[in-house]
Amino acid sequence: MENNFLGKLIYRYLSSGICKSDTKNLPKKVVTFFYCSIYNGYGSVRMVKGIIFDMDGVLVALHLDMDILQERLKEVFEARIEAQQILSTCEKLLVEDHERYKKALSALDNVELDAIDETLEIFPETKSVLERLREDYELVLVTLQGKIPAYKVLDILGVRNFFKAIFTREDSFSRQEQIQMAAESLNFPCDEILVVGDRRNDIRCARNVGCKALIIKRPYKEIKGMTVIGSLKEILKEIENMGKEENRDSKNA
Predict the structure, then answer these.
(1) Terminal CA-to-CA distance of the chain, rounded, Å?
(2) pLDDT tens digits, residue range 4-46?
(3) Domain segments of the chain: what residues?
(4) CA-to-CA distance for 58 and 62, rounded, in angstroms?
(5) pLDDT, mean of residues 228-247
């Protein structure tokens, strides 16, 4: 219903709180609301319909020991690889040496599974926020963790079935490609999709694809040119703020 003009107005009415407020003069309130919505051009405003989440640093923190990871991979790579080069080296092996590629992914999986057992931190608001968001938005997960570790985390949280699709490093080592895949799975225009990540690269990739983006920093700290939140609880408020900005833009156009 929200895909047509009247549907959008009804959606905004139900979301506005008018129908839950004092019922005195309710018919007049409803007429006024719809008139103002049409006058202000609210029917043309795009809303967020899908949300793409990163996992590590957003929903949980794995606290991977990079020294252990580098030592485990040293045997496969035949050299100690800098942490920031691990995924690109795996991607290169995918083309050049599939057997070593499989061994590298297995080593990565094992280190991540150990971290899940030993150092996994679950942010307290994660499950309740996802439960609330899934009522109104379609959710997708992207992660550079492996499929087995990612599914284990989601099962610990009890949220695997909250997500329409899950994309891991087995699907792509590129965050931008993952976001593109996630956006395609949602089947919404990219400007109606919000990406929530914890790194600047997540935000850059989201913008390159054409999505909206939030970066989460615990503890909160401002980052120039980016919308920062300190908790997942702030997502709904930021979506509302985005809607207000789009309303102003549509009226000024």
Answers:
(1) 26
(2) 445 555 555 555 444 444 445 555 445 444 444 443 444 434 5
(3) 5-44, 50-61+122-252, 66-118
(4) 10
(5) 90
